[in-house]
């Protein structure tokens, strides 16, 4: 059996898979996605592909009130941050693709705020360990996101959220 390099215990440095300008690595916090080149604010970083499902899980990205996307790697391994460097813009086919929310340097971990796509999170009281100075302390969602954050994320959240009741 060929060994999956993501599970190769013999070398930490070989534990990665490249996707063009991005790379998935295993870190102390689990899988994470890193940039291999700089991106400017507003630049497309990652198009998302995956299957549509009606059930939310820890990997899915919400695309409509009752629709979620089960993303393929590397999008599957994007971690949440309360101070993210990615945001989303909904494509013409209704899929939220990832764009640089602020300037990204080569080597930076790529993160987005799950509240940029999730209207509600089933386990929204899960403690957030993103480590950002402005960490909200728990994994929130759009419905309960403070107004100041919604303003800050303007233009970088899933389109369907703008039509949802608050
Ligand atoms: Zn946080």
The CATH superfamily turns out to be SET domain
CATH architectural type: Beta Complex
Major sheet: 5 strands, mixed
Structural class: mainly beta
CATH topology: Beta-clip-like
Based on CA inertia axes, which overall geometry fits?
Answer: globular
**Mean pLDDT level:** 90
Strand content: 25-35%
Description:
It contains 1 helix and 11 strands. The chain has 166 residues and is mainly beta. It has one domain (5-163): Beta Complex (Beta-clip-like), CATH 2.170.270.10. A 5-stranded mixed β-sheet has the order 1-2-3-11-8, with no helix packed on it. The N and C termini lie far apart (51 Å). The relative contact order is 0.16. The mean pLDDT is 90. Zinc ion (ZN) binds at residues 82, 128, 130, 132, 135-136.
List keywords for this structure.
single chain; about 170 residues; mainly beta; 5-stranded mixed sheet; 1 helix; globular; binds zinc ion
Topology of this protein?
Blueprint: E1 16-19, E2 22-27, E3 30-35, E4 44-46, E5 50-53, E6 61-64, E7 67-71, E8 79-80, E9 86-90, E10 96-100, E11 109-112, H1 147-152
Parallel strand pairs: 8-11
Antiparallel strand pairs: 1-2, 2-3, 3-11, 4-10, 5-7, 6-7, 9-10
């Amino acid at each position: 059996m060929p060994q999956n390099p993501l599970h190769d215990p013999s070398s930490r440095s070989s534990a990665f898979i490249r996707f063009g300008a991005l790379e998935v690595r295993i870190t102390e916090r689990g899988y994470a996605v890193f940039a291999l080149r700089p991106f400017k604010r507003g630049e497309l970083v990652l198009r998302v592909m995956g299957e549509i499902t009606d059930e939310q899980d820890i990997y899915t990205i919400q695309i409509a009130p009752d629709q979620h996307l089960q993303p393929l790697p590397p999008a599957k391994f994007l971690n949440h941050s309360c101070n993210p460097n990615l945001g989303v813009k909904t494509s013409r086919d209704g899929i939220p693709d990832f764009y640089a929310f602020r300037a990204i340097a080569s080597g930076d971990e790529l993160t987005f705020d799950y509240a940029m796509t999730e209207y509600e999170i089933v386990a929204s009281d899960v403690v957030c360990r993103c480590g950002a100075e402005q960490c909200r302390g728990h994994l929130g969602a759009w419905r309960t996101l403070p107004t100041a954050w919604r303003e800050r994320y303007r233009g970088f959240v899933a389109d369907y959220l703008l039509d949802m009741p608050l």
